[in-house]
From TrEMBL:
InterPro entries: ABC-2_transporter_component (IPR051449), ABC2_TM (IPR013525), ABC2_TM_bact-type (IPR047817). This is ABC transporter permease. It is found in: Cell membrane. It comes from Persicobacter diffluens. Belongs to the ABC-2 integral membrane protein family. Residues 132-370 form the ABC transmembrane type-2 domain. GO terms for molecular function: ABC-type transporter activity.
């Protein structure tokens, strides 16, 4: 323990002397947690729409007013020429065209049916599909409204009152969903990325040979390298959870903090083992950074942070199950937002424990083999 104490003191001194490393550890994660949830919002708004109204009736005007008042659409152009509206799409000024045919109101009253035409700029597939879905939904609601007002079809349609309640995210705030996921990514970066660079730095400057010829045992050296970043990871998580998430975004953890920090402690051990494993394959910090960047991109994009895992193809879902970040993001969202208990997160905990044993076992084996 005395040897480990001296090693930890040396490591903390080295970390706090490194003027370039300190901002990467303490400043960048906080800035990212402040900025990324504001930008990473998949709710599509301000969809530019051109409306071609050949009818110019009170019914078509009410439909246009309903679309404009929805909050999702911005009226780019209004006229009676489809060709001019299509030029707006070609110039990338419009995302959608809604064409209202002539005699729209008359046909609704007499024929009890009419057809609208929607043209979608599908270059941006996400915006196109969501914009088209929003517009179709507004038109369907408007259709129901005029059927009730005019009693079209005389089919005995009655008013239906709907009572809805949103659980765990009352106001459907997308930031509540994103902040725990981004916090998990930041903790992963501190655990895996920084620890791998710190170990490789000893190789690069040649001090690891000096340490290997001293009476210091390898497990003391490994613990001395990893424990400081375990403590820093816990500190960064606490600042992010109670400083940024709570004070800035109003996210208050609903579940047990003891359970949350217990899983965090285990997850950091797994990520530190992963960082150590990367360092055994790297001789320079540049190599370590390249390896870490490669895996961090996989962790980021295939963790369910931005894209739901259920919507991924089969092979991608299989890769996501081999991603430790997937399970930690699930645990964070479940405990922080839903207040889940230990019995609800047992499967994720077992997966994180498996990663912990695997990464650290491979790292220690490879370290002994290559050192």
């Amino acid at each position: 323990m005395r040897t480990l104490k001296f090693l930890l003191r040396k490591e903390f001194k080295q970390i706090f002397r490194n003027k370039s490393l300190l901002p990467m550890i303490f400043v960048m994660p906080i800035m990212q947690l402040l900025i990324l949830p504001l930008a990473a919002d998949y709710e599509v708004k301000n969809i530019s729409i051109s409306i071609v109204d050949h009818d110019l009736s009170s019914t078509s005007r009410r439909l246009i007013s309903k679309i404009s008042a929805s909050g999702y659409f911005v009226l780019n152009d209004f006229g009676q020429s489809y060709d001019l509206a299509f030029e707006e799409i070609e110039k990338d000024h419009a995302d959608l065209i809604l064409e209202i045919p002539a005699h729209f109101e008359r046909n609704l009253i007499k024929e009890k049916k009419e057809q609208l035409f929607i043209a979608v700029n599908a270059i941006n597939g996400t915006k196109a599909s969501l914009g088209g879905a929003y517009l179709s939904d507004i038109i369907q609601n408007y259709n129901q409204e005029i059927r009730l007002n005019w009693s079209l079809g005389n089919d005995g349609l009655k008013h239906i009152n709907i009572s809805a309640q949103n659980w765990f995210n009352k106001y459907l705030n997308y930031r509540f969903f994103m902040v725990p996921g981004i916090l998990a990514i930041l903790v992963t970066m501190v655990g895996a990325y920084m620890s791998s660079l710190n170990v490789v730095k000893e190789k690069e400057i040649g001090t690891i040979e000096q340490i290997n010829v001293t009476p210091i045992k390898k497990h003391h050296f490994i613990l001395g390298k990893l424990i400081p970043f375990w403590i820093i990871g816990m500190f960064i998580f606490s600042i992010g959870l109670f400083g940024v998430a709570r004070l800035v975004y109003g996210i208050i953890p609903q579940g047990s903090l003891l359970l949350l920090y217990g899983i965090l402690a285990l997850y950091l051990i797994a990520m530190l083992g992963f960082g150590l494993l990367l360092s055994t394959f790297s001789e320079t910090q540049q190599q370590a950074m390249s390896l870490a960047f490669f895996f961090m991109m996989i962790f980021l994009l295939m963790s369910g942070l931005f894209t739901p895992i259920e919507s991924m193809p089969t092979w991608a879902r299989a890769v996501a199950k081999l991603n430790p970040v997937t399970y930690f993001i699930e645990v964070l969202r479940m405990i922080v937002l839903k207040g889940s208990e230990f019995r609800h997160v047992q499967s994720q905990l077992l997966a994180i424990l498996g990663f912990c044993v695997t990464f650290n076992g491979l790292a220690i084996y490879n370290y002994k083999k290559t050192s």
